[in-house]
Amino acid sequence: MKLKATGIIVEYNPLHNGHVYHAEQAKITTEADLVIAVMSGNFLQRGEPAFVDKWARAQMALSSNVDIVFELPYRFATAHAPLFAKGAVQLLQAAGCDAFCFGSEEGSIDAFTNSLTLLSETEEQYEAAVKQAVAAGISYPKALNEAYAAVSNDTKANVKLADLSKPNNILGFHYMKAAEDIRSNMKAVTIKRMGANYHDDAEEGKRIASATGIRKSFFETAALSKVTGFIPPITNNLLERWQTTGKSFGSWQTFYPQLRFIILRDGPERLRSIADVTEGIENLFFKAAQKSDTFEDFMSTVKSKRYTWTRIQRMLVHILNGFTYEMREQMEMPSYLRLLGMSQKGRSYLHEQKKNFSLPVVSKVAAIKDPSLQMDCTASDIYAIGTANNKGHIEIGKDYSSPPIIGK
Question: Which residues bind ATP (predicted)?
Answer without folding.
Answer: 9-22, 103, 168, 193
